[in-house]
Write a structure and sequence with these properties.
This protein is mostly beta strands. 8% of the residues lie in helices and 49% in strands.
Length: 151
């Protein structure tokens, strides 16, 4: 699998930008989708922060319509999402796994959502490929992500 120019692969489906000025172009979006098509995750994440210890994490994520991000929450961390390409459906849940609200984001209308800390949520692409900008605080600690059991 070819890693797009200006990026390095740090884990399966995860790229870091190695350019000194970290910008994201239309060509980068196309390259991220191509990269994501060729991995078994059917998604790809381009990290614009320097490493997992950074205090601010900004990522551009490509998500295929067949992929579903499992129900989870982040302990002590808010997240925001801004659409770049396509459309996604966010489902927010209570702690029992019951849907409490649904939010559809798309490039032409409802482009942004902010998810509070400790809020269970999942997301799914409504288009062949969706690309969105995700922001949260660092550092990344796997233990801060909690998945809702049996869902």
């Amino acid at each position: 699998m070819t890693v797009p120019e200006g990026f390095k692969e740090v884990a399966k489906g995860v790229l870091h930008c190695v350019r000194p000025i970290r910008n994201f172009t239309t060509l980068d979006a196309e390259r991220l989708i191509i990269y994501s098509e060729k991995n078994s995750l059917t998604r790809g994440r381009l990290c614009m922060h320097s490493d997992s210890t950074a205090s601010l994490h900004e990522m551009v994520v490509a998500l295929h319509r067949t992929d579903l991000v499992k129900i989870h929450c982040h302990i002590g961390k808010e997240e925001s999402y801004h659409m770049v390409i396509g459309a996604v459906r966010f489902e927010l849940y209570d702690s029992n796994g019951k849907i409490s609200s649904v939010h559809e984001l798309e490039v032409t209308n409802n482009r942004y959502i902010r998810i509070p800390a400790h809020q269970y949520h999942s997301l799914k692409s409504l288009t062949e490929w969706s690309v969105f900008h995700e922001t949260t605080t660092g550092p990344f600690e796997q233990k801060d992500t909690v998945y809702l059991e049996n869902y």
